[in-house]
Amino acid sequence: MTEQPKTSRTAPHTSSPAQTRAPHRGTLLHTLRRKRKLRANLAQLLFVIVGVSVGLAVPKITAGPTVEAVAVKTLLFGLSAAVIPFVGIVFSLLFLVVQFGNTALTPRLNLFRDDPLVWRSFGYFMGVFVGCAVAGLAIGSDQTVSVLVPIVALTAALGILVVFRSLQFAGFRSIQFAPTLRDIAERGRAIIDALYPEPFDEHAAGEDPVPPVTSQVRWPHHNSILQQIDLPALMVAAERSDSVVELTIAVGDVLREGAVVAQIRSTENRPSDDAILASLTAGLERTFDQDPRFAFRLLVDIALRALSPAINDQTTGVQVIDGIDGLLATLEMRDLDVGFVGAADGTLRVVLTLPSWEEYLALAIDEISLSACAIPTVLARIDRMLSDLAADAPEARRPAIERRRRQPGAERSAAEVPVPATT
User: Within a domain: residue 115?
Assistant: First the structure.
């Protein structure tokens, strides 16, 4: 049995028994849904609101011993004034960390930049700044205030140091290769586990044809990247019109202006274009949210940069292949044919474009093999990876692996240069 790619732009097919799609339906509906993240500016606004509230409330506390208000006001305004230059210094250093990662690894790496810690820490700093300033003003002409006021202010200042320490360690970790490689592999593994939860079945049911294409939906906006698919919304649109919606692009692909993004397969009705387009989230760059290829793309980019003549870091190239090996070893044992999504009654409603095993192999191996055609150490590691994959892979997936083992350059194998035992 030879596995066929599942990204063909020809008329799709679907497994005829409804139960063959049932195990994937709930998982896909949970995985492929729009994930709304709390915007950075909204999170920072919440910190400022909390700071104002605390700054107004704390000076009104009358419990406990008291201290002179003049000294407390001096402390509060001093802390408030010190936060601004501190924030400038901290985030100037963080910008250098991001720049280093873009230069040394790949400009598509956004793990540290998108880390919620970065933006929430800025919000916390602003909350402390506003809170101290408001508290100092709220004291007004009072002669004494509760000792809790300076205690709360100093505690907030110590919190700044704790947050800065967390930022510092996160920044150091993001410029170290091994932790970055681990983070990329873990994010890739997470989406693979979510998207392909079932083991590969070589004896899957056959496929039946679906209705022909009756109309198309084109992308009306400027070029962008497909970041997310809201599958539940897409299912609702298909069910209401009693049609099959086939997406012709995958998450991570470019949404080209005027290009076909979906094909409607129906005998009578069809969903509106707005309903289809509303289920697609576009942006300027790829993200890990629903893109199982993004981790491979980042790892390959890092390997290509390491193996370039300007850098020629063979050990880094081998270490990247270790990470790719782990992801491919997971994928080869999973059922990748999850793109045909049925309703609760088993009726096919949505056809997704997802990468096939052949496409994953091509993305993960071909560019590195070409770049390393004169680097025996890396070729030896690739050969060992392909040998291990071929030994464990289901029969249907071995031909794609064996073709790469027979490619020119792969014949220069581990006999010439030993692969490092550990990286």
Answer: yes
Question: Is residue 82 in some structural domain?
Answer: yes
**CA 150, CA 130: separation in Å to the nearest integer?**
15
User: Would you call 418 exposed, middle or buried from its count of C-beta atoms within 10 A (0-12, 13-18, 19+)?
Assistant: exposed
Core vs surface per residue 231-263: b (16+ CB within 10 A) or e: bebbbebbbebebbbbbbbbbbbebeeeeebbb
Task: Please report whether residue 175 resides in a domain.
Answer: yes
- Spatial contact of 227 and 287, defined as CB atoms under 8 Å apart: yes
* Alpha carbon distances (Å) from 35 to 21, 227, 232, 240, 341: 24, 10, 12, 23, 20
Tokens of 200: 């590969």
Q: What is the domain range of residue 53?
A: 40-184
CA dihedral 379, 381, 384, 388 (to 10 degrees): -130
How far apart, in whole angstroms, are the C-alpha atoms of residue 50 and residue 124? 10
Question: Is 116 in contact with 170 (CB distance < 8 Å)?
Answer: no
Number of domains the chain contains: 1
Residue 76 lies in a domain: yes
241 vs 350: CA distance, rounded Å: 12
The torsion angle over the Cα atoms of residues 286, 290, 292 and 298, rounded to 10 degrees, is 30
Left (φ > 0), alpha (ψ -120 to 50) or beta: where does 339 sit? alpha
Strands 260-265 and 213-218, sheet pairing: antiparallel
Distance of alpha carbon 73 from alpha carbon 153, whole angstroms: 11
Return the SS3 of 2.
coil
pLDDT digits (tens, 9 = 90+) for 68-87: 989 999 999 999 999 989 88
State how far the Cα of 99 lies from the Cα of 97, in Å rounded to an integer: 5
Name the DSSP class of 396.
Answer: G
Q: Phi first, then psi: what are they for 366, rounded to 5°?
A: -60, -45
Distance of CA 236 to the CA centre of its chain: 26
pLDDT digits (tens, 9 = 90+) for 288-312: 989 999 999 999 999 999 998 888 8
Rounded-to-integer distance, Cα 180 and Cα 110, Å: 11
Q: Which helix (H) or strand (E) holds 134?
A: helix 116-139
The low-confidence residues of the chain, meaning pLDDT below 70, are 1-25, 36-39, 203-209, 267, 408-423
